[in-house]
């Protein structure tokens, strides 16, 4: 995770200088926005809406850097296959916050790749159905699970149109600090919320993508890289018919 | 119609304790199955991130739906004032509560964090139909228990009618709520249908009555109390009507789906290519749960045989479980359409690669939990009839039939 570390250092240095500019270019193609990240002691508000644009035409086949980065960042590989488990079944039971999907157009035969994760719906069906309110949407658009009140009923998984959620089917031996978790609860991509709460403005998948196919940022800020890209290129929401106003958009599918 | 006398279930102590012991052992085995699943985590079950609700949910939903249906007999007596059903009412109410508790127990014990039940009972998200259901279930138990009290206690008798009406209305809302659990899942093709809720109500009539008939005839037989043909024939005719109506609703559901092009793939899956789901649909739901019992109860000679009527009720139950299996598991196994016009050719998450359905094979522990729920329901019923004046002394034709000569 070298890239991430470097990015972090640079970001910290940048913060120390106290420059109030809203964006800074760290490397060609990577632009960071700082003004909108709220510090931990401040409640998040809706002045920011985090979102993502994924350029599927840049997403290379066979690459799983974003998946790996997510697994590392969020400790998804802290699970080893339980003894006696059937490997094939286990693969369907282990948590996966992000997956790489390859599509073939039925008419043209064109192949496209894309990473798919929680789409951070503005009207999230998962939060609507959750009996306890454990699934919720933060004011800044991040949809996540409060693992202290999740009862593990999996209704949210039934409701999510993107199959974005994982149920923890097994004991967790190592408890990663960044993403507390436990057997019997449901979890999903949270836009690396621990980073956002620390004032960072990138996600692990974005940092890891060698093709810069993922642009993350504040959808409410017209000057953010993601807003500019959305204004410039045609993009779609997956299952736009459901009118969920997703925070993750795709171009070039 | 003669005066009806009710009395506690007076079977020999030995038989009674024997029955309790058997049911308790089955429940205990289910308890161990739960410990096994909760200790290891759900990886020991057949459930996965693709099939998130498995066999326990099939049993639980079946029992919950049947619970509201079991109350029907009582409702016919109290709300629709049919005298002939009055002696049947107490058992109907008791069974309704027992089945609901059995079903809920399964649901709770299958949670990822069952020990957080208290959270579910205290933290509500009122947007969630699931949260509303928790309230509906608790309310049902309370209202029906009160209703039972008004039946059993002479002093409370003046509330009988009101309680009966309340229980009846509540059960309609409850089944609608249960059906809506699925109806609200807009993203899933098999569920997004307005017909789901009324269909569940119709199904509940059949399931609940079938269980009622079995319990009634077994409990009477065991205690040697007379149970005349007139009661059983009346019930089996009713069962026939409910089964026919369920078939009709199933037909409407699939026809509406076939009408909308976007659901053709789902229909082809259930009706033709779904393997075990297609088999469960045609053989379980339609044949065993529908056509066969229908043929039996309305058959001129089979329909007069108590043994065949009993068999028909069992078939309705088996068919009912198959129906719920197709709805719950089949509905999840069918891949969701995320990319219209495109085929998923690879995915890290089994997104219906090349349109293939997800696989699920139930584990023993899941099935044991489901069966345990039934055992608990029967346990409650058995203890209830033993302690309370639930069962009439006789339902022989001359007692039970308001039109009989005497
Ligand atoms: S993509 Fe799924 S998990 Fe994410 S917000 Fe939408 S419904 Fe919830
Ligand atoms: S599994 Fe947890 S987060 Fe999902 S609906 Fe149930 S309680 Fe809510």
UniProtKB/TrEMBL annotation, chain B:
The principal localisation class reads: membrane
Any one GO CC term of this protein is: plasma membrane
Compartments in which it is found: Cell membrane
Q: What are the protein's UniProt keywords?
A: Cell membrane, Membrane, Transmembrane, Transmembrane helix
Q: Which domain of life is it from?
A: Bacteria
Transmembrane stretches, start-end: 16-37, 57-81, 88-109, 129-150, 162-187, 193-216, 237-256, 276-296, 308-330, 367-385
The family database entries (InterPro entries) matched by this protein are listed as: Electron_transfer_protein, NrfD-like
Q: How does it sit in the membrane?
A: Multi-pass membrane protein
Indicate the family of this protein. Answer: Belongs to the NrfD family.
What protein am I looking at? Molybdopterin oxidoreductase
Species, as recorded = Solemya velum gill symbiont
Q: What is the lineage of its organism?
A: Bacteria, Pseudomonadati, Pseudomonadota, Gammaproteobacteria, sulfur-oxidizing symbionts
By which gene is this protein encoded? Answer: rdsrP
